[in-house]
Design goal:
Number of domains: 3
Number of helices: 17
Number of strands: 11
Family: Belongs to the bacterial sugar transferase family.
Radius of gyration: 27 Å
GO molecular function, one term: transferase activity
Strand content: 5-15%
Protein name: Sugar transferase
Distance between the termini: 33 Å
Keywords: Membrane, Transferase, Transmembrane, Transmembrane helix
Main location: membrane
């Protein structure tokens, strides 16, 4: 039986709600700072707009309107739930609420100004809205990054009690352990029946589901996750909720549904039941004309912008050892088709013949499908630099234009890797491979094979154009920091 690393647990009770209350005030302060910056930039910009008439009283207008605008803006965000604690840290809901509140506030200002016949500078108003959305969203993004960093250090975390069958508890605990930025610290487990001291994954058992309220009080928990097998009926679930009614604890239900995007799930009430409607996997959508057009435009722009870098890289490789600049390698693409994947050559000319000599350096261990060594002696001196910043991948813009690859998607595998695929892993071939993807921006070569597969399958099942844009944005950060690249 494979050894399973135990989940990190703490047994000393503490009250985390005091620190969690800091998040909402921090969000308010962040929004106020952003609003102050926007008002200042809008006033300065209005005075220098080339198509607007001079406004001598704009300074006085900006000063007089600053406080009402800031207060009204924050109240609008609050009214849309922008400071609700359960939205902080994950998902796009927080950003959507800020944007929605800004647009609603803009509409309210316009209506009030028209009805009251207020002399409000249209240029100032226009800049206020145009600048307000990106500035506020950026502020929330920076606050979220700070929150994630704090949670990775064990601060601002939730103490979580997981209730369910041993296998379900371990599955939930593994996910929470894998994603520490979520801030859920597993304290222990509650099983339907007594007996075990710990789950197979190492989560200590603190009691049975019937003692949920008592364990919550003794351990100082603020979140209870009810996973599969926790209760045997809806009546038992209702009783468990009643027992927790007087405690300051958040109740969460974990359905037997993982790696599914939230926009694929809808809750439909039906006679007291909450039916979860699940959209079909979206692999077929990733082959639509819109994604192809996006790829063509993006690859063309990428080639134009990266032109000087491509020329300099080609020259450096050629001057180093006189070998070929490009290294075409046979890869497997959409539905198992073969194509030549272009890369700048970063290894010695006879690198393929030396594979056996460096196979022992495979950091992922025996049985891993991928082969990549952190200190590969075949890499040339310019190759180390171009691999560190993924410059060797830039010629793949040509593959994108030829329709063999996409800007975003699973990495194109070698034929030898595909031979080792299971039926589930072959789902990766349902879309065009990409120059970048979820696993590249989530750790690149530092990820395990299982995590790489999980992220690629998540992308295939949950594709959307917004997700592609998000991955491209995160790629810039991953490349500049050279995280997991070798």
């Amino acid at each position: 039986m494979a050894l399973v690393s135990p989940v990190r647990v703490t047994t000393r009770p503490r009250t985390p709600t005091a620190t969690h209350r800091l998040i909402a005030p921090a969000a308010v302060a962040t929004d106020l700072a952003g609003i102050a910056l926007v008002i200042t930039l809008a006033a300065l910009g209005r005075m220098h707009l080339p198509f607007a008439n001079a406004a001598a009283d704009l300074h006085e207008l900006a000063v007089a309107a600053a406080v009402p605008l800031a207060v009204g803006w924050v109240l609008a965000i609050a009214a849309h739930g922008g400071y609700a604690g359960h939205h902080f840290g994950a998902g796009a809901t927080e950003y959507k609420q800020v944007v929605r509140a800004t647009l609603v506030g803009a509409g309210a200002i316009g209506v009030v100004s028209y009805l009251a016949k207020l002399e409000f500078s249209r240029g100032f108003f226009f800049l206020l809205i145009i600048l307000g959305v990106p500035v506020l969203v950026l502020g929330r993004h920076l606050l979220r990054r700070a929150l994630h960093a704090a949670r990775r250090r064990g601060r601002l975390t939730h103490r979580v009690l997981v209730s369910g069958s041993p296998d379900q508890v371990d599955e939930v605990a593994d996910v929470l352990r894998r994603e520490p930025w979520l801030g859920y610290e597993v304290v222990g487990a509650l099983l339907p029946t007594p007996g075990a001291a710990a789950t197979p994954g190492g989560v200590p058992v603190l009691g049975t589901t019937s003692r949920t309220a008592a364990v919550v009080a003794s351990e100082g928990c603020d979140v209870v996750l009810f996973a599969g097998g926790a209760v045997g009926s809806a009546r038992e679930m209702r009783r468990a909720a009643w027992d927790l009614e007087d405690s300051d604890v958040q109740i969460m239900l974990v359905p037997s549904l993982t790696d599914v995007a939230t926009d694929r799930v809808r809750v439909r009430p039906a006679a007291g039941l909450h039916l979860m409607e699940l959209d079909r996997p979206r692999a077929h959508r990733a082959s639509r004309l819109s994604k192809r057009a996006f790829d063509i435009v993006g690859a063309s722009a990428g080639l134009l912008l990266a032109g000087p870098v491509l020329l300099a890289t080609a020259l450096a490789i050629r001057l180093h050892d006189g070998g070929p600049v490009l290294f075409p390698q046979t890869r497997v693409g959409l539905t198992g088709s073969f194509f030549d994947c272009f890369k700048f050559r970063s290894m010695v000319v006879d690198a393929d013949r030396l594979v056996a000599q460096v196979a022992a350096q495979n950091k992922h261990g025996e049985g891993h499908v991928l082969f990549k060594a952190a200190d590969d002696p075949r890499i040339t001196r310019p190759g180390k630099f171009i691999r560190r910043f993924s410059i060797d991948e830039m010629p793949q813009f040509l593959n994108v234009l030829r329709g063999e690859m996409s800007l975003v998607g699973p990495r194109p595998p070698l034929p030898s890797e595909v031979e080792q695929y299971t039926d589930d892993v072959r789902t990766r071939l349902a879309v065009r491979p990409g120059m970048t993807g979820l696993w590249q921006v989530s750790g690149r070569s530092d990820l395990s094979w299982e995590d790489s597969v999980r992220l690629d399958l998540y992308y295939v099942d949950n594709w959307s154009l917004v997700q592609d844009l998000t991955i491209l944005w995160r790629t810039v950060s991953a490349v500049l920091t050279a995280r997991g690249a070798y």
